[in-house]
Amino acid sequence: MAADVDQFRIPVPALTSFVTSIFAKAGCSPAESDRVARYLVAANLTGHDSHGVVRVPRYVDLIAEGAVVVDQTVAIPFENDSMAVVDGRMGLGQTVGPQAVELGIRKALASGVAVVALRNAGHIGRVGDWAEMAAAKGLISIHFVNGHGSVLVAPFGGAERRFSTAPFCVGVPRTGKPPVVLDFATSLVAEGKVLVASNGGKPVPPDAMIGPDGQLSGDPTTLYGPIEGTHRRDPRFGLGAIRAFGEHKGSGLALMCELLGGALTGNGTAGPLTEGPKDKVRRMRNGMLSVYLAPRFFGSAEEFEAATAVYLDFVKSSKPARAGGEVLVPGEPEQRQRADRTANGVPMPRTTWDSIVAAATKLGVPAPAL
Ligand code: NAD
Question: Which residue out of 169, 184, 269 has the highest number of ligand 1 atoms within 8 Å of its CB and is therefore the one to mutate?
């Protein structure tokens, strides 16, 4: 396929150190530059290129515009033993996200359950990262996420944008094994997947979007408007919407992510935007309502593990629907991608690479020789 031809693999260390240098020049401390680069590359490693380094030019622009704050520390307007309200104060999501998760982990380990409402976080990227962070401490976690200022998705039955791509995520830990991590956008595709497709990466399904006339579309210009010959990928210029996944059920889950991740956290829902014309400059902020559960408080953590293992085997033992097929559990596709890409490098569409190099050049960061 023509779209896949102009693509190469870049080794993980070279990509990570290039992206780290870009964020350092953009104004982040060495620790933050390293952290943001590692999380973005980690998203590529799990196969979610939509949340990987393709985002670098956008993040750099947001830092330059002052729309996100480097090296931010969260504020905690309210907390008790089992809950906290955390204000990310528009810090980079890769910095304020882990601070909020850390708090939830600490409280759940002590109390058995914790609820953390994070508001005003810069883009928190792949939500599975936060479930994996909790799972590494033996905790189950559930995350309802929304994006205020990022209305992109049409509700079931609608042809106009009303939701953000509002991801939902659940992580279940397993001792000595990778956690089970269900992590998806409630839109038929994450916006970043349209971004990747617009850069010559994997195309999105032909019914992933809907035009204002109700016509289904897989063409990224439905979301971004004309893009031919430009690096501009801005949903404010498109007239269409991404569709919610799963008909009325996915649309309903998206609504709940907006209500819990947006309204309850104080982050604000995807719309309507009421903050005046200044906020019309793209100023996406993530809200995340997270629930953390420590299995040992529910009985025996060992029994939960054992029951989980037996059940996962039962699920995976289902006869494949197609000859040569296989039943996977959530998290397995990411583990396989991680193994392949760590060994063989991250696939990089030339257009994505060019847009990262353009952002780097503006900051005076030389691109690595490949
Ligand atoms: P997706 O459609 O690729 O679905 C991924 C989920 O489905 C994973 O849990 C994966 O393990 C599971 N899965 C995939 N194939 C499977 C199979 N064959 N069998 C069993 N399970 C399988 O994900 P997406 O909707 O494109 O979302 C991509 C990423 O974008 C997610 O990490 C999400 O958190 C992130 N996201 C973030 C934001 C934000 O505002 N920060 C917004 C939207 C999406």
Answer: 184
Q: Which two tokens stand for residue 24?
A: 């350092």
Q: Which atom of ligand 1 is nearest to the CA of 123?
A: 41
Q: What is the DSSP string of 227-279?
A: -TT-----GGG-S-EEEBSSHHHHHHHHHHHIIIIIIITTS--S----S-GGG
User: Which amino acid residue places its CA nearest to atom 15 of ligand 1?
Assistant: 333
The domains located in the chain, with CATH, are 7-299+337-363 (3.30.1370.60)
Hey, what are 273's tokens?
Answer: 């935007």
Distance CA 250, CA 144 (A): 13
The continuous run of DSSP H or E covering 7 comes out as strand 7-10
Query: Over the stretch 71-84, which tens digit does the pLDDT of each residue have?
Result: 999 999 999 999 99
Query: 214 and 239 in contact (C-beta within 8 Å)?
Result: no
| Residue 127 Cα: closest atom of ligand 1 | 34
Peptide linkage before 272 cis (omega within 30 of 0): yes
d(CA 95, ligand 1 centre) in Å:
21
Q: What pTM, to 2 d.p., does this model score?
A: 0.95
Cα–Cα distance measured from residue 49 to residue 198, given in angstroms and rounded to the nearest whole number: 13
Distance 365 CA to ligand 1 centre (A): 32
Ligand 1, atom 27, lies closest to the CA of: 184
Alpha carbons 23 and 33: distance in angstroms, whole number: 5
Tell me the average pLDDT of the chain.
94
pLDDT at 275 > cutoff 80: no
Q: How confident is the model at residue 279 (pLDDT cuts 50, 70, 90)?
A: very low
CA 160 → CA 153, 211, 270, 297, 335, distances in Å?
7, 8, 13, 45, 36
283 CA from centroid of ligand 1 (Å): 23
What pLDDT does residue 65 have? 94
Decide: 359 and 57 in contact? Cβ < 8 Å. yes
